[in-house]
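Practice problem 4.
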C-alpha cells in the first residue's frame, strides 16, 4: 500500500510525503495511517469522517480542508491519493 500525501497552497505542492506499508489497505485502520502521515508532515491530524473514507475508497483520493482541522492549519488543503501499483 502506498499513499501520496500533499500539502497544497494556491494549487501548488508545498510539502509531500509517500507513505508505504507492506500490508494491504484496511479502511478500519485509516485513522492510524492518517495519523502517521500527519506526524511525518509535522501537521495536526484532521477530524476523520465517514465521508472522507468513502471518498478515498471510491475515488482513490480525499481532500482535507482547513475546516477539517481543530488546530490551526496553514495550508489550503491536505490531499491523500492512493497509489495503485
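Answer key:
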Amino acid at each position: 500500500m502506498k499513499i501520496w500525501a500533499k500539502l497544497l497552497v494556491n494549487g501548488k505542492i508545498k510539502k509531500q510525503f509517500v507513505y508505504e506499508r507492506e500490508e494491504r489497505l484496511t479502511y478500519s485502520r485509516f485513522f492510524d495511517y492518517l495519523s502517521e502521515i500527519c506526524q511525518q508532515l509535522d501537521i495536526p491530524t484532521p477530524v476523520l469522517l465517514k465521508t472522507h473514507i468513502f471518498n478515498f475508497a471510491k475515488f482513490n483520493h480525499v481532500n482535507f480542508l482547513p475546516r477539517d482541522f481543530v488546530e490551526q492549519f496553514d495550508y489550503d488543503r491536505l490531499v491523500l491519493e492512493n497509489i495503485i501499483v
